[in-house]
Amino acid sequence: MVYMRAPDPDHGFLLRDTLQRVEATFDRAFGPRANPWRHLGALGFLLFWIVGASGMYLYALFDTSVQGAYASVEHLSREQWWFGGIVRSVHRYASDAFVLVLLLHLAREWIYGRHRAFRWFTWVSGVPLLWLALAAGIVGFWLVWDELAQFSAIATAEWLDWLGLFAEPLTRNFLRPDSVDDRFFSLLVFLHIGLPLLLLLGMWVHIKRLAHPDTRPGAALTWGTLTALTVLSVALPVQSGAQADLAIAPQALAIDWFYLAPNAAVYAWSPGALWLVAAGVTVLLVTVPWLPRARPQPVAKVDPANCNGCGRCFVDCPYAAITIEPRTIGTIEPRTIGMLAGRANATIDTRNGGKCEPGLAVVDPALCASCGVCAGSCPSSTPFRSMAELITGIDMPQLPIGQLRSRLKSQIARLKGEVKLVVFGCDNAVDVRALQRADTAAMSLLCSGQLPPAFVEYALRQGADGVVVTGCGECDCAFRLGNTWTEQRLRGQREPHLRRTVSPAELRVIWASARQRDRLAHAVDAFRAELAARGRAAVSAAGNGYA
């Protein structure tokens, strides 16, 4: 039985198409590796460290007293504007950018449908990060203790008092100028350090189920972000308002809408309405991965007879869905013991007749993405094995490697024309079936990472003149690492690798997003023309006696 991957629910073609246009524009301007849209998660980590580093300097010069808090911040901003003022502004703008990146990251993952099934834990664990970031930022405003801080502190107190959980209303702490003492600022410093530490812990939990998470943006994006924040800080330095005075109610304030929008909503609506909205948004975000429930996909299956416990699938799985566990296979020959003894995942006991316990891959169905990257990494997934029915150590039921070999062989056999091409594509990128023609065989995989490199050589040996490998756009694999691992395997940088007997002239790797159909078609036509020209040149050289 052949399974077909169920498409993700359509959240609106217009949203997805618009986002793809925006990302393509940034690709042309910065390149995929420096495109902030393609590295929002890594950019969030970068901004967090920028906020943390700048905050350490500010804390070292901050006076945690009623009389000194405002004065110490003013000294930084005005007397030491050439450094302290810039650091303060970078701290503020990086904090705003952090919240913005969190929201954009959430929206992007939802638009692309990357929040369902095996991704539910990563999505749900990201929800508390929004509230922790908001709380940490609001407390940071209070430390300045200007009129905006006064407004925010009283609004937050009124919001919390609505719950009726405290013996005395929190707002009583802001009734008179002498209500606030030095202990208040000590508490704020504790919260402003503690909440970011909780946020960092939450960020670690958020990526816990991801293998090789993207937490460090490239050099270009890193330096570009730092430069932008610095230029903004010099051009528009952050300044405090008038010092807080609990005897006076501020009249006109410039609200920071990234952090203080809830404070404004307390008065625009009511504390109860704001609690209802906050609870509703939280519940919606937590339950959205199951609205509606995704159709389950067949997960990777392990065949113990063909799994040698090498661990490549464990290393390459993008979602840490595979573990290597020991197993007993009985008494084996001494030379086999010697082969297995060098493996980190094999336990040898020569005292009992050569008993060996090599590893066996085990798949966690709850974490498996059904991408097939593990099948592409398995050393047994080679089409050159002399088996009538090719069975591999780990495989995908909806598109087994054995079935892929049979289809490839039959499709190449029917090809006619001057140049015969084979195109391997990805179900989540351009539909390569549109490239199918008399001289071209097009085969779509679950992910480009499912392609064992040996299939390139096999296609050439079966009669193809050239092979094209394509998939999701660079730095935008639907399964995070599929195209990265594939490119490294084809370049000989990762096992299993493409053998050097394959000429680079016979292979083209073209990463193309779903919007780049024409680009892919033109690149394939150009490759075909190049192979045809080379073939005619070879024939001409042979006719002139140079072959």
Give an account of the 3D structure.
The structure is a single chain. The protein is built from 17 helices and ten strands. With 547 residues, it is an alpha/beta fold. The strands form four sheets. The chain has a four-stranded parallel β-sheet, with helices on both faces. Helix 2 runs antiparallel to helix 4, helix 3 crosses helix 4 and helix 4 crosses helix 8. It is elongated. It starts with 12 loop residues before the first helix and ends with a helix.
Residues in helix, %: 40-55%
* Count of alpha and pi helical runs: 17
Residue ranges: pLDDT <50 for 5 or more in a row?
A: 1-11, 330-355
Radius of gyration: 30 Å
Give the key terms.
single chain; 10 strands; 547 residues; disordered N terminus; elongated; alpha/beta
How is this fold's topology laid out?
Layout: H1 13-30, H2 40-60, H3 66-79, H4 81-111, H5 120-144, H6 147-161, H7 182-206, H8 219-235, H9 261-268, H10 271-287, E1 301-302, H11 312-316, E2 322-326, H12 334-341, E3 347-349, E4 355-357, E5 359-363, H13 373-377, E6 394-395, H14 401-414, E7 421-426, E8 440-445, H15 454-461, E9 466-471, H16 482-490, E10 507-511, H17 517-543
Helix pairs in contact: 2-4, 2-7, 3-4, 4-5, 4-8, 5-6, 5-7, 6-9, 9-10
In short:
49% of the residues lie in helices and 8% in strands. It is an alpha/beta fold.
